[in-house]
Amino acid sequence: MTNFQIVLTGIFVFFIMVGVVLFATFGKGGSSDSVGSVAIWGTLDKDLMTQVLDKLKSESDNIYDGVTYRQIDEENFNQELAEAISSGKGPDVFMLPQDSIVKHEDKIFAVPYDTYSVRNFKDKFIEEGELYLTNSGILAFPFTIDPMIMYWNRDIFSKNGIAIAPKYWDEFFALSQKVTDKDKDFNIFTSLVALGDYQNISHAKEIISTLLMQTGNPITKRTDDSFDVTLSQTAGNEISPTEEALSFYTQFSNPVKPVYTWNRALPDSTKSFLAGDLALYFGFASELSQLRTKNPNLNFDVAMMPQTESGNVVTFGKMYGLAVVKASKNIGHSYSTIQALTNDDVLIHLSELTNLPPVSRALSSKEVADPYLDIFYKSALISKGWLDLNKDETSEIFNAMINSIISGRKKISEAIQQAEDEMIALITR
Predict the structure, then answer these.
(1) Neighbouring C-beta atoms of residue 187, cutoff 10 Å
(2) What is the pTM of this model?
(3) Out of 152, 275, 301, 424, which residue is the most buried by the measure of CB atoms under 10 Å away?
C-alpha cells in the first residue's frame, strides 16, 4: 500500500469514527438541547409539513426550532437529491418512498438495531414499514401511508339490484355479466371494472402487484448482499401463483370471455369512473377529495380491496419513510428529529391534516367514526409493497408483460419468465 493510500484510508476511517461518535452521543434523543440545523427534503406538500413542524416546535421548548423542510417536485427529486449530496449541499433527512428504497439505499445512514430494535420497530409501525429493514440496520422510519382501496358507484350497483360491493375476486365473474353493458360488436358502455390491460388503467402496476402479493409472492426479496426476483416461483404448485393471478387479470379484456368488461378504446379508468361509466375503481385513499371535487354529483362509496378467499389479505400501499442521509454532519440530531416526527402525537396530527391513516400500528387499529377513515385505517394494517428495483423500468416491464399476454404473442408463463429475466438484469446493471 502506498503512503497516499494509507493516508486516504486513515482519513476515511477517521470520518467514519466521527460519525459513530456523533450518533452514539445524540442518537438516543435524550438531550434537552436544541437539535440545531436539520434540513428535511421531500415531495410532500410544504404547507402540510409546515403545520406538522409548527406543532412539533410549539410543544418541544424550542428543541426543534432549527428543523426546516423543502418541497421538491417528484419528477426532479431524485436528480436534485443526488446532485446535492455529491456536492456536499444535501439535506440531513429525506423522505424515502417505498418504491425508491433500492435506488437510494447507498445514500442512507442505517440506524443500528442496538439503537432501535427490530422488536420495537415491528411493534410500532404497520407491516409495510418492514421494507426499510436491512441486515445492517433501519434505512427509514415510516411517516405516511396511502393504501389502495376500492371506490364503487352506488347508483350502478342499485340499478342492477346489487346491495354491497364485492369482498372477493371470485364475485367478479357473475358481477361482470350483470353490470357490464356492451353490444354485439363488443362496444362497452358501462363497465364493471378496469382490469385486463395496462395503458388506460390507472395504477395498473399497483393493482397487479396487489394480486401477486395476495398469492404470497413478494415479487422481489433481499438476499445477503443483493436481491432476488420471485415472479416465476411456483410455491410447489404445477402452475405458479403469478400465472394464476395474471390469467385472472387479463381475461377481463378478452372479448371472447364472458367477463369481458374493458378495452383499450375506453377512456382511462379514473375518467370513466368520474363519468359514471365504471362501477368499480381501484385508487388510493388520497384520491377521495379529488374525486369529490371533480364530480360532486357522483354517488360513490369506498370499500377495502377485494381478496382471494384462501390467500393473504393484502392491499398495495404507497409509503414514505424518513431517512438520515449518510453524509449529514448532524446524524445524531437528525435521528432525534425523526423520532420526534414519528411520535404518535405527531402522527395523529398528520393523519388529521391529510385524512390518511397513521403509520402507527396502535393508532391504525383504533376504531374511528368516519366511514371513509374506517376503511382507510383497516386498509393501512394490510398494506404491503415490494422492493422496486427501478420504478420506471419495472413499470415498462409490467406493461410489456401484460401486452404480450393479451396480444397472444406469448403464453402467460413465457411472459412472466421474460419479465423476471428483465428485472434480474436491473439488479446486475
Answers:
(1) 11
(2) 0.92
(3) 152
